[in-house]
Amino acid sequence: MTDTMAEITAAVALGRTGSPDAARARLRELWEEIGPDGNPFHRCVLAHYQADLFADPAEALVWDIRAVDAAATVTDEQVQAHDAGLAVAGFYPSLHLNLADNFRRLGSFSAAAEQLAAARKHQDVLADDEYGAVIRQAIDGVAEAIERRSTERRTTAPGVE
């Protein structure tokens, strides 16, 4: 498991250091290597990060859907093999938040509101730490944007512009 996660992490680092095309290409290769029956934890993490590498919300949405689908089959044991302090339940606030934001940016406000409600439903599992605060603030920001019927990219959204 560690080698695949190291490969995913290295590809994500490419994107964060200004090479999103190379990062997307490498993550796509890894996606193919993992395959549809591969480790769902790897599939979830890879798809979640791949989505952040697309400025186009439709392209990001495809990957965010893949991440949520993979999360549905991830076990806590698989997550804890990577980090003993994690639980799959902690993935859902962010995963649903990303879906909500993509739908909002595409102008599908009702679908965005449904996903935002799912993110809020799961946010109680977030710790009172920096990550939890970031996700809660993003949930509030997306809710505000939905209310305004804004399709603009949030300045605090992860990913490329």
Describe the structure.
The protein has about 160 residues and is mainly α. The chain has one domain: Tetratricopeptide repeat domain (Serine Threonine Protein Phosphatase 5, Tetratricopeptide repeat). The chain is built from eight helices and no strands. Helix 2 runs antiparallel to helix 3, helix 4 runs antiparallel to helix 6 and helix 7 runs antiparallel to helix 8. The radius of gyration is 15 Å and the shape is globular.
What's a quick, concise take on this entry?
By secondary structure, this protein is mainly α.
Task: Supply database-style keywords.
161 residues; Serine Threonine Protein Phosphatase 5, Tetratricopeptide repeat; mainly alpha; 69% helix; 8 helices
What secondary-structure arrangement, pairings included, does this model have?
Blueprint: H1 2-16, H2 20-34, H3 40-51, H4 57-71, H5 76-82, H6 92-105, H7 109-122, H8 130-148
Helix pairs in contact: 1-2, 1-3, 2-3, 3-4, 4-6, 6-7, 6-8, 7-8
Assign the CATH class: Mainly Alpha
Helix content: 55-70%
| Terminal Cα span | 31 Å
Q: What are the low-pLDDT stretches, counting only 5+ consecutive residues below 50?
A: none
Tally of alpha and pi helices: 8
Estimate the mean pLDDT confidence.
94
